[in-house]
Amino acid sequence: MTETTSAVDAAIECELRFLDPAVHTSPEQLEELLDPAFRAFGSSGRSWDRITLVAELRSRGATATRPVTVTHMKGVQLAPGLVHVTFDADSNGRRAHRSSLWRLCDGHWLLYFHQGTLISSGDMSG
User: Fold this and answer.
1) The dihedral of CA 102, 104, 107, 111: what is its sign?
2) Is the four-CA dihedral 52, 49, 47, 11 of positive or negative sign?
3) 64: DSSP letter
4) CB contact at 8 A, 37 and 53
């Protein structure tokens, strides 16, 4: 396995872990995955940082967080220690294109940036 392949695989593994509803209810697990400088623009139009996202996911609780169906997940290493992951997500019928930047910090992959964009009904690319 090449360095590029292992970096992409590691970032994808972290992305899938981040999407796990069980992780959403654990501030400790979320903080292990989120870069201190984390920023996100959600498909809802809301903007998040690390503190506000952890608080929001924790307040929703386990029952409100549903599993997400993921398709078309792929990644590309943009530079050493930086991987871009893209995928489509379906959360209870709400479909979105998603894009994440993962960076390697002190031997751990951390989610630095995430963006979600709703998929329109006419979009056949997803």
Assistant:
1) negative
2) negative
3) H
4) no
Asked if 114 contacts 40 with a C-beta cutoff of 8 angstroms, the reply is yes
- Dist. CA 81–CA 99, nearest whole Å: 17
pLDDT digits (tens, 9 = 90+) for 4-27: 789 999 999 999 999 998 888 888
Angle at 70 between CA 66 and CA 72, to 5 degrees: 170
Question: Looking at the domain assignment, is residue 125 inside a domain?
Answer: no
Give Rg (Cα) of the chain. Answer: 14
Is residue 124 in a domain? no
pTM beyond 0.85: the answer is yes
User: Contact 86/68 with Cβ under 8 angstroms?
Assistant: no
Residue appearing with tokens 């984390």: 38
Helices and strands of the chain, counted as H and E runs: 4, 6
126 within some domain: no
Tell me which residue has tokens 């993962």: 102
Question: DSSP E strands: which ranges in the chain?
Answer: 34-41, 47-49, 69-79, 82-91, 94-105, 108-118
